Amino acid sequence: MLKNYNLEPVKQALATAKQTLILLAQNPDHDSAAAGLALYLSLSKQQLNVSVGCATPMTVGFNRLFGVDKIKPRIGNQNLVISFNYPEDSLEKVSYDKDPANQKFNITIEPKAGLQVLDVNSVEYSYTGSNADVIFVIGARGLEDLGDLFKSEQKLLEDKSKILINLSSLDKNSQFGTVNLYDPTASGCSEIMFAVLTGLQLPVDADMATNLLVGIELKTANFTSTQTSADTFEIVSQLMRLGAKKGHLPTPAPPRPFMVNPAAPAWPRPTTPTSIPFSTPISAAPAAPSDWLKPKVITSSSQPE
């Protein structure tokens, strides 16, 4: 039987949410990334407006997780961000003015005297700022674990009118959520996420199930860690019935134990033939038997010679 988490506030919030946001802690492991993507795919299948973000880019090791291309380093589109490369202390001032007649907003960047002007080709534009109603934070001990996303979205994350869901199995969790789906007895976030998706009656197809199984396999070192429990195996069996692919992402082999100056194997030493000391004259060497060069006939010990 799956664990019962307090999901009623989450269910009520999702029922009225205009936008849902899923955030992963910076430098996530496969477990938290798999859990976040399973949630993203499930909510998307329900036609909900949802996005998923992480401050650090996904490396090639995550490329087999379904939906990994949906994880973005910036989230939201409320604020326009203008970025450009310019040496520190090279600006004299930055000012703006409004032109109501033409409905324009002008920004003026003035360099210090004698320094190079800003190259327009180096200017980049992007968006930040989300207006999400429901926010899931996955695999974090505290909001600071979100890295740059916490810095850029601090106002949103600390808005008490939002539903903030903390989903984690990590120790020393600060219980920062409006709803804390914190379970240190679970093998990881993927195990918790399956119980959450099932409890919220959200769809779980083969791709989502595979993601979650990958997360569990890697978090438990292929079911060898001490956090592997009967609940873990029960969830794995349900995921496989839903079409999860076992071994979809290879599990690294556990490291071999390090041995300091291991002892050499005690191989049997060969019998040393009788040697002749260098000081012994050749004439003093033992004489060979008279039949040394004659052919020999090998007989069985059970037969007469």
Automatic annotation (TrEMBL):
SUPFAM superfamilies: DHH phosphoesterases (SSF64182)
Compositional bias annotation for Low complexity: 272-288
InterPro entries (alphabetical): DHH_sf, Oligoribo/pAp-PDE_c-di-AMP_PDE
Top-level taxon of origin: Bacteria
Region (Disordered): 261-288
Protein name: Exopolyphosphatase family protein
Organism: Candidatus Beckwithbacteria bacterium GW2011_GWA2_43_10
